[in-house]
Amino acid sequence: MDKNKVKLAIAPIGWTNDDMPDLGKENTFQQTVSEMALAGFTGSEVGSKYPRDPNILKPMLDIRGIQICNAWFSTFFADGLKAKTLDEFITHRDFLHAMGAKVIGCSEQSRSTQGTPKPVLEGRPIFTDNEWNLVASGYNELADLAAEKGMTVGLHHHMGTGIQTTKEIDRFMDLVDDDVYLLYDTGHAYYSEGSQEAMLHILEKYLPRINHVHLKDVRDKVVAEVRAHKLSFLDGVKKGTFTVPGDGVIDFKPVFTLLDNFGYQGWIVVEAEQDPAKANPFEYAVKARRYIREVAGI
């Protein structure tokens, strides 16, 4: 891949889990960003321990050569919370803009089972036609708000949400305007569809509309346990559903090839939430960086 077009980041969720803050509660913000830099990454997404004042956060990152590239934002359009979502989005957008980010990754969390004890593969929301229209209309407005600051919005397809499967991604992308993008996540695509082929199909189909990439690997054995015992998404995370690229079952060579051949420009982010007591975050960050260097040449 062309290192002049692609930048590498890593998410702090490997150090401290935002959904389960007890996982990694011992890891401080400064330790986290220092280890990111030491492992060879130049970007980060935003975690729960990060200061939200750009005047405080930016100097701490600048000295380590780290740039903020994105931060998770939850939307609730299907639940009818449009005004609240838009209001909170503007605050979020302005923070990211002040930090120099160009992308805002959003997830439609209406009735999501992601952070609940419910089985991740059962009982997740299935949107009605009206709810789909509410989501699409809301995301079109988010894109307009982002454009005011020269930024773009990407939908993060995610396990346990109403936009998880290939069919649901297709419907979302068909309904929204062309300036609404997709935040492509290898781990969630593989987890949802159960195969490398389906995961790559999503990537190839939407390459022109992908504005941000999350790299995470998957352990099939844990996914099988989640399915068999009807475990929650977070139970799976604790057991090790996800890991860094090169440590699971996904072959990332065709992922890098597709992105490179298309001429993708932007951030590629290692985002592999695990229990840091079982998977030392610094060690796994180094492992991921080494693998990407060997396989993608960057």
Features:
298 residues, alpha/beta, nine-stranded parallel sheet, two-stranded antiparallel ribbon, globular
Walk me through the structure:
The mean pLDDT is 97. The chain has 298 residues and is of the alpha/beta class. The protein starts with 5 loop residues before the first strand and ends with a helix. The strands form 2 sheets. Strands 3-2-1-11-8-7-6-5-4 form a 9-stranded parallel beta sheet. A two-stranded antiparallel sheet has the order 9-10. The protein has helices at 29-39, 54-62, 82-98, 129-147, 166-175, 186-193, 196-206, 220-229, 233-239, 253-262, 281-296, and strands at residues 6-10, 43-45, 67-70, 73-75, 103-108, 152-156, 180-185, 210-215, 217-218, 242-243, 266-270. Helices cover 43% and strands 16% of the residues.
Q: What order do the helices and strands come in, and which of them pair?
A:
Blueprint: E1 6-10, H1 29-39, E2 43-45, H2 54-62, E3 67-70, E4 73-75, H3 82-98, E5 103-108, H4 129-147, E6 152-156, H5 166-175, E7 180-185, H6 186-193, H7 196-206, E8 210-215, E9 217-218, H8 220-229, H9 233-239, E10 242-243, H10 253-262, E11 266-270, H11 281-296
Parallel strand pairs: 1-2, 1-11, 2-3, 4-5, 5-6, 6-7, 7-8, 8-11
Antiparallel strand pairs: 9-10
Helix pairs in contact: 1-11, 3-4, 6-7, 8-9
